[in-house]
């Protein structure tokens, strides 16, 4: 070996460019071996496995379709739910999602649609989906009801086919979904007939009064696994009445809150055992009895005074869906569209202009 080294050195020196190449490759190989050897030493005794997820975590973290990429979501998503088979969102539906996305740019806005088949990575061709694709925080996902209700008191209720024959099944299914989502995931739930004016992230463990003594679940904001939502799910099953429209929704939340607080009357703004009953102005500034006011003209100053203590406006679509809105007017609802969902408003104006063109 001692005789070989001088000879090798002599050969390498006589071929200097080749020598430099060989020495460089040898050094990189040696460094790579040492690096992997040291890394293996540091990891000795550690076991690395793929992260596991519970079924309800997979429900949200493995979307079959994400409209667009974006920043990591902050804790507590905003949820919308469509429990019918509809996959052609209305103007109001689209405005609701757009306004929520604009008010919560750093928060994931998840739209769960029963009509979106699980495993289908493409959405139907519809202007609303194209519009919402411009918001990186909006995600459209299938609503897998069996998976959603699994592990909750509602799984048995959902598995009984006779409930589907009830006159208000879709409404009750929506009621069931929202309280389950709040219990499993937490965050914010909104009906698809809300127009969001402000960021809602400062509201936690809260719901709003729709009258002086009745709560409504069109808006909910809770931390995951909150006991109040657990009691709501159990009450839903124990006291189910398929023939009463509001029994599983506003009436359920109202009776559970009163039992929760051991009270007979709810006071506006009261906080009981960590759960807040927000004033009517917060989410229901237009009472359902006065829904036609949404289609009446109003000055900007009057609108400002009306909504100065409001986070979002409930439009009462069950009552107002057949009313005609002149999008270019000064109607209260038209002004809300223009300010808080301008992209949807622009689409409405475009469609209105095209419909008014004379047929050639």
Structure characterization notes:
This protein is an alpha/beta fold and 360 residues long. The protein is 42% helix and 12% strand. It is built from 15 helices and 10 strands. The protein has helices spanning 4-14, 16-42, 55-61, 91-103, 127-132, 145-149, 154-158, 169-184, 227-238, 250-261, 280-283, 300-306, 317-320, 332-340, 342-356, and strands at residues 78-82, 109-113, 138-142, 187-190, 194-196, 206-209, 215-222, 271-272, 275-278, 312-314. The strands form 2 sheets. An 8-stranded mixed β-sheet has the order 3-2-1-4-7-6-9-8, with helices on both faces. The chain has a two-stranded antiparallel sheet with strand order 5-10. Strand 6 and strand 7 form a beta hairpin. Helix 4 runs antiparallel to helix 15 (342-356), helix 9 packs across helix 10 and helix 14 packs across helix 15. The radius of gyration is 29 Å and the shape is globular. The protein starts with a helix and ends with a helix. Residues 1-25, 27-57 and 61-74 have low confidence and may be disordered.
In terms of topology, how is this protein built?
Elements: H1 4-14, H2 16-42, H3 55-61, E1 78-82, H4 91-103, E2 109-113, H5 127-132, E3 138-142, H6 145-149, H7 154-158, H8 169-184, E4 187-190, E5 194-196, E6 206-209, E7 215-222, H9 227-238, H10 250-261, E8 271-272, E9 275-278, H11 280-283, H12 300-306, E10 312-314, H13 317-320, H14 332-340, H15 342-356
Question: How many beta-strand runs?
Answer: 10
Query: What average pLDDT do the residues reach?
Result: 84
Q: How many separate helices?
A: 15
Question: Span between N and C termini?
Answer: 98 Å
Q: How would a textbook summarize the main sheet?
A: 8 strands, mixed
Percentage of residues in helical conformation: 40-55%
* Class computed from helices, strands and strand pairing: alpha/beta
Strand arrangement, major sheet: 3-2-1-4-7-6-9-8
- Cα-atom radius of gyration: 29 Å
- The H/E string reads HHHEHEHEHHHEEEEHHEEHHEHHH
Q: Please tell me what the overall shape is.
A: globular
Kindly estimate the percentage of residues that lie in beta strands according to DSSP. 5-15%
């Amino acid at each position: 070996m001692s005789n070989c080294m001088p000879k090798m050195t002599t050969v390498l020196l006589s071929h200097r460019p080749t020598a430099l190449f060989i020495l460089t490759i040898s050094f990189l190989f040696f460094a790579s071996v040492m690096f992997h050897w040291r890394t293996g030493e540091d990891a000795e005794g550690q076991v690395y496995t793929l992260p596991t997820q519970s079924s309800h975590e997979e429900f949200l973290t493995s979307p079959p379709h994400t409209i667009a990429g974006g920043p990591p979501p902050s804790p507590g998503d905003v949820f919308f739910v469509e429990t019918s088979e509809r996959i052609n969102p209305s103007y109001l539906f689209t405005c609701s999602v757009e306004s929520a996305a604009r008010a919560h740019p750093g928060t994931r806005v998840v739209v769960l649609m029963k009509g979106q088949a699980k495993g289908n990575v493409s959405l139907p061709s519809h202007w609303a989906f194209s519009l919402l694709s411009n918001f990186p925080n909006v995600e459209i996902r299938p609503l897998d009801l069996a998976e959603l209700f699994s592990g909750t008191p509602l799984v048995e209720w959902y598995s009984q086919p006779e409930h589907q024959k009830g006159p208000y099944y879709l409404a009750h299914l929506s009621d069931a979904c929202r309280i389950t989502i709040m219990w499993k995931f937490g965050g914010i739930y909104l009906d698809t007939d809300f127009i969001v004016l402000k960021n809602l992230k400062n509201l936690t463990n809260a719901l709003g009064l729709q009258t002086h003594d009745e709560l409504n679940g069109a808006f909910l904001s809770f931390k995951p696994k909150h006991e109040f939502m657990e009691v709501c799910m159990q009450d839903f099953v124990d006291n189910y009445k398929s023939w009463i429209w509001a029994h599983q929704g506003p009436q359920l939340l109202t009776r559970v809150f009163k039992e929760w607080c051991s009270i007979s009357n709810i006071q506006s703004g009261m906080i009981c055992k960590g759960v807040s009953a927000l004033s009517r102005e917060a989410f229901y500034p237009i009472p359902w009895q006065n829904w036609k006011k949404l289609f009446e003209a109003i000055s900007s100053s009057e609108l400002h005074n009306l909504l100065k203590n409001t986070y979002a406006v409930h439009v009462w679509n069950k009552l107002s869906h057949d009313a005609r809105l002149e999008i270019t007017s000064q109607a209260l609802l038209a002004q809300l569209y223009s300010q808080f969902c301008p992209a949807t408003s622009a689409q409405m104006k475009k469609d209105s202009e095209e419909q008014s063109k004379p047929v050639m």
